[in-house]
Write the structure tokens for this entry.
Amino acid sequence: MQARDSGSMDAGAVHLATTDVNALTEAQAAVELSRLSQELAAANQAYHGLDAPIMSDATYDELKRRNAAIEGRYPNLKRPDSPSDQVGAAAAEGFGKVAHRVPMLSLANAFQPDDIREFDARTRRFLNLGPDVPLAYVAEPKIDGLSLSLRYEEGRLVQAATRGDGEVGENVTANARTVEDIPNQLAEGAPRVLEIRGEVYMTHGDFAALNARAIETGGKVFANPRNAAAGSLRQLDARITASRPLRFFAYAWGEMSEPLADTQWGALQRLRELGFQVNPLARLCDGPDALLSTYEEIEAQRATLGYDIDGVVYKVNEIGLQRRLGFRSTTPRWAIAHKFSAERAWTRLLAIEINVGRTGALAPIARLQPVTVGGVVVSNATLHNEDYIAGRSASTGEPIRGGKDLRPGDWVEVRRAGDVIPQIVDADLTRRDSDAAPFAFPTICPQCGSDAVRDAGDAVRRCTGGIACPAQAVEKLKHFVSRNAFDIEGLGIKQIEMFFNDPVLPIREPADIFTLEERDRQNSERLRDRLGYGERSAANLFRAIEERRSIALARLIFALGIRHLGEAGSALLAQHYGSWPAFEFAMTAARVGEGPEWEELNSIDGVGRVLATSVVTAFHQEAERAAIDRLIPHLRIDNPAPRATESPVAGKTVVFTGTLEKMTRAEAKARAEAMGAKVAGSVSAKTDLLVAGPGAGSKAKDAERLGVKVIDEATWLDMIGAA
């Protein structure tokens, strides 16, 4: 079992189980959202990118559900790097990369029957359908496997790609051709171009046989069928994949030259006719009660299916309605996944260890006596923060686990649903050793000896050493070269750790990466002559670094490792400012809480005060700013593509307020952005249009004060040609 790389949990860990979201103050909610973002980003990369999960499905789902609840209560605090806007992880090295013509999105999750009824009600509200208007859905099992996209041209399989980060996946065409359920040639009548999406999986019987053979031959033993399927498909040698018993269910599609059918149900039948396996438990349902009945039916068969499922997926049946409903940033509005519950077991807490992340967060990790939970052996868990260990809520101070603290040697109950790292949910005090002492959370950084302080309102204790702390410096460099940042081939986690401590060619900050080749030429002890490198490998590294001097603005901003700033937020900033000089000038001129640059930054839809404060602060911290200034001259920065320019609202900044009567606010925002407009959340001097419906309040007054043009919904619809 893999241990969590706690260094990646730079925003600390999050208390999940008992803190009431409604009890959080706005400041506490901002801290909570920060930790959730970092925790879930690390989980996505481990699960989708490395096939090595670091937390259970149940923990992941609860983290995402808590994040959504806080965002619902404080929508102004939603972060640009919100987990609500993240899909999967970047494509792995070793495979060619495939850009999906139609993004492969994830699904929103539901957990309770009321969530499903609300999904139906929300769908009806978006479509302006009354409660008595028929609305059919398709329900089918959610397969716990690896998502795969298959592209057919003239009926022939020409490309197969994993989901990756939803936009770019790995080319596994040769491997996919070896999977029995994947046809290389489609039946007559297939569209000229057809991309099929589905799930690669392994049955329980085949999984047991594979592990039995591995034990006999000394090969790799997999933790569960999902990991076995993912690891088998992502082999560089297709002959290995061919030797593995992989299966495939088809359930969706991407790019098509012509539609498969008018309904989801009809499309599934068409997929079967074309030669694909479609799950036989799929059902056509006439409403939420029928969906819940199907859920109970499938859940009752879960243990006897012979393959893993972790829930049931519901989709609006009519394709035309799916198109109207459209998408959020990473999930369709017309579908939802109803997840199954978690599993539990008792084991012993052997030790509590502390790791330091790139923002200095001290993250406690539980080392457990290995225990089997739901068929998987687990030995590690995150302990979130010092309050969680002490048995109290970090947000409210109220007791959790009945106020029981956690001590090394305790017997603890752990919970998981489908993967590796669980959550500790209880402790048995009757089995506690009489001499067990409470755990003393360190107030000194275990890496550099600097004070570790905890700011008011923050659940995380942080090292004050900054870049002088080797743990923080190393983690920042790891982030800088990560796949979603500079993605320098041959300069990964192990190489960063090696170069950081290298006495001859040290890499202590990002700029050092781009001077490495020149410094190597000047040294008598050349990299090519040292352990682990030769002439070719050194040249390959220098070439890879040279290739990454050209970098997209959004990736550069993300690579800086600014606290609270993720990929989505970096993309927003890059699109808004358009170039590094404009962005750098604005952040340098901005002052927290005042001035036109600060107001402009906060007016960007998706940027809140917490993120804005973090970015501005980073550009005003002397050491961090100096490191940025040393880096930029080494780079060629690519500006983002301009927005659409042919519509009457292209390039305009639009704010919506009040009640819209012809379309929902979400539909209006999506339409405006599709036509090249910037949709802001507040009115500023840079706002071009305020679209005001009945009930417009303070935003209308702000527009009047600033001289911003105000129009009604009818004028807006006429302007965009939708009247």
About this structure: The domain at 110-329 is CATH 3.30.470.30 (D-amino Acid Aminotransferase; Chain A, domain 1). The radius of gyration is 26 Å. Residues 1-18 have pLDDT under 50 and may be disordered.
